[in-house]
Amino acid sequence: SPPVVLRLKCGSGPVHISGQHLVAVEEDAESEEEEEEEVKLLSISGKRSAPGSGSKVPQKKVKLAADEDEDDDDDDDDFDEEE
């Protein structure tokens, strides 16, 4: 038999039901040390990047953010004039 019985009190549906089953697992001290070593290795390899490729992307984002701020100021001015 199923562990839970659900009944629709009103309406004809459709009904979508979802859930999660979480299980807590105690880890050994050794496994925690292994995870820390993996994180260190990932952080070291993550620092390497192709020369010049990383500096171009943030500059574009900064320009876009500056343009949006200017547009917002223009919108505020138009609103003030209508009042």
Question: How would you summarize what this structure contains?
Answer:
This protein is mainly alpha-helical and 83 residues long. The chain is 58% helix and 0% strand. Residues 53-57 have low confidence and may be disordered.
Fill in the keyword field for this structure.
single chain; 83 residues; elongated; 0% strand; 2 helices
Radius of gyration: 28 Å
Strand content: under 5%
Shape: elongated
Average of per-residue pLDDT values:
63
Give the SSE order as H and E letters.
HH
Fraction of helical residues: 55-70%
Biggest sheet details = none
Low-confidence region ranges: 53-57
Number of extended strands: 0
Compute the number of helices: 2
Which class of secondary structure composition applies to the elements? mainly alpha
How far do the termini sit from each other? 68 Å
Describe this structure in words.
The chain has 83 residues and is mainly α. It has a domain at 55-83. 58% of the residues lie in helices and 0% in strands. The radius of gyration is 28 Å and the shape is elongated. 0% of the residues are buried.
Write the layout of secondary structure elements.
Layout: H1 29-46, H2 53-82
